[in-house]
Structures are given as structure tokens and as C-alpha cells.
């Protein structure tokens, strides 16, 4: 099986897929689409992803898009370790956790939204940054309330890592891109720390990607 991931170092949605691929130990090639230079709009990439977004997973010659759909696909073609449990309530719960980030928070901060704030509302870079931090903080607060209701033990569903943990770790990665303080969200911070102790998560972090490191040499 040949897997290619079109992603970008800063893309939170690509982060989620990188974690799932690593947890399942699936080898893949990552191809960078530089979202900050507008490469998502190039006609060659438009053939691959009609939405002009990353990630896209290409399995053999077939394209799959939307990070959570990609993760569920990977779970179906490579069931071990499972990222979604079989029990319906637990399955819905972990999907719901993932969607707090993927459906409610992250879409408000993506490049095309930031660009629209600039073009249509004349927002400057500090206003756009404040917008992104606001919605990111809302996501962190929502996850904190959810985890207080059902404390992780040690992960969101218990012993095994599920797609909900990828969402919560992704929320923290998003906050880190905006250099936000996590101390008001101790449950979230502790769960993310457990996740990022694993190489599947730490190696997928935006700051661990070659594209980021090339721009920020130590
Ligand atoms: N809901 C999609 C998100 C896709 C998305 O918006 N990706 C961002 C990067 S994280 C992107 O490519 N944005 C390009 C743009 O906004 O121009 C998913 O989960 O895959």
C-alpha cells in the first residue's frame, strides 16, 4: 500500500492525520503544500483537493480529504490500534471530542478566514492574532469543562488512545502555535502532556516538522 499525505507544518488538520498514521505505524510520504505562500490554490493541487485545503491522503491512486474522515478510513484499513471503539456511546463520545476542535474551533483560524478578516474587515495582524487566540481559548475552555465532567484515565476514554485525544492534543498544538499559556486549563494540559510524551504525537507537532525547523534554526 502506498500512502501520500499532502500537508503543511503548521496545518492542525495535517497534524491530526500524522498522529493517526504514526499510531498505526503506517509508512507514508508527506508532500508540503505551503499554505502561507498560497500553494493550495495552484492548479496541480486543485486537481488533488477541490477545497484547496490540506490534508489530502492519497492511498494508491485514491484521494481522501477531511482529517476526521481520513482518520476513520485509516482505522478501517488498518484496525490496530483502534482509534475509535466499537461501543456506540464511547464511539460517539470520542468523535464528539475530536469535533470540538475540527468542527467548532479550528475552522475559525485557518488561513482563508484570516485572509478574509484582512481583506473584507480590514483587520490588521494583531487583530487577526487576537481573533485566533480568542477562538483557541474558547476551545481550550470547552475541553477543560468536558474533561472535568469525565476525567481522563489516563486518556479520554481510558487506557487506549482514541481520536478524541488527537483532538485535545491538536487543540494544545494550536494554542502553542499562538504561544498561549495553558495554565488555566490543567486537565487539558495534563492530557496533552501524556499524549506528547509519545513519539506519535511529538513527532507530528507543527514545531517538529522540517518546514518549521527550516524557518526557525536553533
Ligand atoms: N476540516 C478540514 C480542515 C481543512 C483546512 O481548512 N485545512 C487548512 C490547514 S489546517 C488549510 O488547508 N487551509 C487553507 C486555507 O485556508 O487557505 C479537515 O479537518 O481536514
Could you please describe the fold and organization of this structure?
The chain has about 220 residues and is an alpha+beta fold. The protein has ten helices and four strands; from the N terminus they run βαβαββαααααααα. The chain has a four-stranded mixed sheet with strand order 2-1-3-4, with helices on one face. α1 links the parallel β1 (about 5) and β2 (about 30). The model has no long low-confidence stretch (mean pLDDT about 95). The protein binds glutathione (GSH). Glutathione (GSH) binds near residues 35, 40, 53 and 112.
In short:
This protein is of the alpha+beta class and 218 residues long.
Strands side by side in the biggest sheet: 2-1-3-4
From N to C, what is the helix and strand string?
A: EHEHEEHHHHHHHH
| Sheet with the most strands, sense and barrel status | 4 strands, mixed
> Structural class of the helices, strands and pairings?
alpha+beta
- Continuous helix count: 10
Gyration radius, in Å: 17 Å
CATH domain fold name of the largest domain: Glutathione S-transferase Yfyf (Class Pi), Chain A, domain 2
Taken from the alpha-carbon principal axes, the silhouette is globular
Distinct compounds present: glutathione
- Number of self-contained structural domains: 2
**Mean pLDDT, nearest integer?**
97
The helical percent reads: 40-55%
Q: How many extended strands?
A: 4
CATH architectural type of the largest domain: Up-down Bundle
The stretches of 5 or more residues where confidence is low (pLDDT under 50) are: none
In terms of DSSP E residues, the strand content is 5-15%
CATH C-level label of the largest domain? Mainly Alpha
Q: How far apart, in Å, are the first and last alpha carbons?
A: 36 Å
EC number: 5.2.1.2
Domain GST C-terminal: 87-218
Pfam family, one: GST_N
Keywords: Isomerase, Plasmid
